């Protein structure tokens, strides 16, 4: 339990650092560390497969692409676009919504009655695969279709031909 | 957790660490010697007999060179870059089974540091992490050539990771396990080696391994004709040494991975018919495993001194338009074969 609290503290700390650092590259690196602490959380929950996949996909691929894009930007202070008041206003509203949600969750959630995992072995590859392909086959296929759609959309956007004059 | 277990693992880790570093050191010598052989000249032969002390001299030189951090560089990330590169290179060998069990007195010592049951995926994760070292180093140098090198490294490694993962999926369909220990144990003898079941998968995997290690013909990130020195243009002294070292360690680890995934790891032909005791088979197995690794390292160098470098668009075309479709076809083929085998030939 102490390990959990320590890692949870680290996750929140690095998540806050992600928001509060001025330099975008630092921000991405803190986000990488935050994802790493998530991996540790998954291992603590005995969900090895999820842990490793989180490690590979988020830390190894998505954040590399984030960093990739940021490196190409000109990160001087002068060229940084000023945020308009509209954006700030929207940010405040979104933050308030999040606060209300947290409060609601806190009221509904019974801390004295914690959730227990029915089958602690569920996170191992074999069991996870069986559950995904038997019990949750339809949602699994639907989500893969969704990903395929997103991929095709991205390709279409990238391949958009310039208008003929 | 008992103390003897911890001590046993500590010894194993230290031995593997030392072996890794020594092999990486002598790979630099071997590379130059092989280059010399292929170009009909001697290669380094001044330091010690056959130049055997050359790596020590190089190491000493690296340590005593002046260390320069450019004024415009990002100081912290400039140091973090090579650090990540060398750390990820060193921790990736943790899940490789170097041999079977060794029996010393009453203790049975497994020659594998960690038998993680998602071993292959762990390797993938660490390899994927390795690119941060190059990217951060290249970006932090604040130099256009370094940045170009870093960007090339990132896009190359992301592209080839996909084909590599797909080729591994076909292998997993044959082995039915993600644990490296189990995969190697299944390939006992000679006819059970995975290379016979997955020849196409092996070729794809090997090409991707070359690309992931940034070796010729895929060394575009440090291509000196276009980018001065690529991502390590601004590095000097031991920080450059660490980048070099991590490259050679990666080469060693990927050779070990290829040997254990496709070429039976510590298994050798007729290992069960020789009538030797289990300990001897283990020891011979370890030697055989290292011979296979050296074979692959030699192959890496052979290719380096034979083939010219790709152009960058050719590299991307090869990755996305050749290797990925091939790997997917390989998965489908493997699936069809497995189905036919299970339906008609299962006893």
Automatic annotation (TrEMBL), chain B:
Catalytic activity field: a quinone + NADH + 5 H(+)(in) = a quinol + NAD(+) + 4 H(+)(out)
Please state the Enzyme Commission number of this protein.
Answer: 7.1.1.-
The membrane-spanning stretches of this chain are 6-29, 76-99, 119-139, 160-178, 190-211, 248-268, 280-303, 323-340
Domain of life from the UniProt record: Bacteria
Q: Name one cellular component (GO) term.
A: plasma membrane
Instruction: Please give one Pfam family short name.
Output: NADHdh
Give the family from UniProt.
Answer: Belongs to the complex I subunit 1 family.
What name does the UniProt record give this protein? Answer: NADH-quinone oxidoreductase subunit H
Q: Which gene encodes it?
A: nuoH
């Amino acid at each position: 339990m102490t390990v959990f609290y320590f890692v949870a503290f680290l996750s929140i700390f690095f998540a806050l650092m992600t928001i509060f650092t001025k330099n975008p590259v630092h921000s991405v690196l803190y986000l990488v560390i935050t994802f790493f602490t998530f991996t540790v959380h998954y291992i603590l929950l005995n969900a090895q497969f999820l842990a490793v996949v989180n490690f590979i996909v988020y830390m190894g691929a998505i954040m590399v692409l984030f960093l990739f894009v940021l490196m190409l930007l000109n990160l001087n202070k002068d060229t940084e676009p000023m945020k308009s008041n509209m954006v700030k206003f929207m940010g405040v509203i979104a933050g308030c919504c999040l606060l209300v949600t947290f409060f609601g969750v806190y009221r509904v959630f019974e801390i004295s009655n914690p959730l227990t995992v029915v089958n602690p072995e569920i996170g191992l590859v074999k069991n996870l695969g069986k559950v995904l392909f038997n019990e949750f086959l339809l949602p699994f296929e639907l989500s893969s279709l969704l990903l395929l759609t997103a991929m095709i959309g991205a390709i279409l956007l990238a391949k958009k031909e310039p208008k003929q004059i | 957790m008992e103390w003897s277990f911890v001590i046993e693992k500590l010894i194993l880790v230290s031995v593997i660490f030392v072996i890794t570093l020594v092999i990486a050191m002598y790979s630099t010598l071997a590379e130059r010697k092989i280059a010399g052989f292929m170009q009909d000249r001697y290669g380094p032969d001044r330091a010690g007999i056959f130049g055997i002390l050359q790596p020590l001299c190089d190491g000493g030189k690296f340590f005593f060179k002046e260390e320069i951090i450019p004024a415009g560089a990002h100081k912290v990330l400039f140091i973090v870059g090579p650090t990540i590169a060398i750390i990820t290179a060193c921790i990736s060998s943790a899940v490789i089974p170097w041999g079977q069990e060794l029996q010393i007195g009453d203790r049975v010592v497994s020659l594998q540091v960690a038998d993680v049951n998602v071993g292959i995926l762990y390797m993938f994760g660490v390899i994927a992490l390795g690119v941060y070292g190059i990217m951060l180093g290249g970006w932090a140098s604040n130099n256009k050539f370094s940045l170009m090198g870093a960007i090339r490294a990132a896009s190359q490694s992301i592209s080839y990771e996909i084909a590599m993962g797909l080729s591994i999926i076909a292998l997993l369909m044959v082995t039915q396990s993600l644990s490296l220990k189990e995969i190697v144990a299944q390939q006992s003898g000679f006819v059970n080696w995975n290379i016979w079941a997955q020849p196409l998968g092996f070729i794809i995997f090997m090409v991707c391994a070359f690309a992931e290690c940034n070796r010729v013909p895929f060394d575009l990130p440090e291509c000196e004709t276009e980018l001065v020195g690529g991502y390590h243009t601004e590095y000097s002294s031991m920080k450059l040494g660490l980048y070099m070292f991590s490259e050679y360690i990666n080469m060693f680890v990927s050779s070990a991975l290829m040997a254990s995934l496709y070429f039976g790891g510590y298994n050798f032909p007729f290992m069960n018919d020789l009538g030797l005791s289990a300990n001897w088979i283990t020891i011979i197995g370890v030697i055989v495993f290292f011979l296979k690794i050296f074979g692959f390292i030699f192959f890496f160098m052979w290719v380096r001194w034979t083939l010219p470098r790709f152009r960058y668009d050719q590299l991307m075309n090869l990755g996305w338009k050749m290797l990925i479709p091939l790997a997917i076809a390989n998965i489908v083929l493997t699936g069809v074969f497995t189905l036919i085998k299970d339906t008609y030939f299962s006893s």
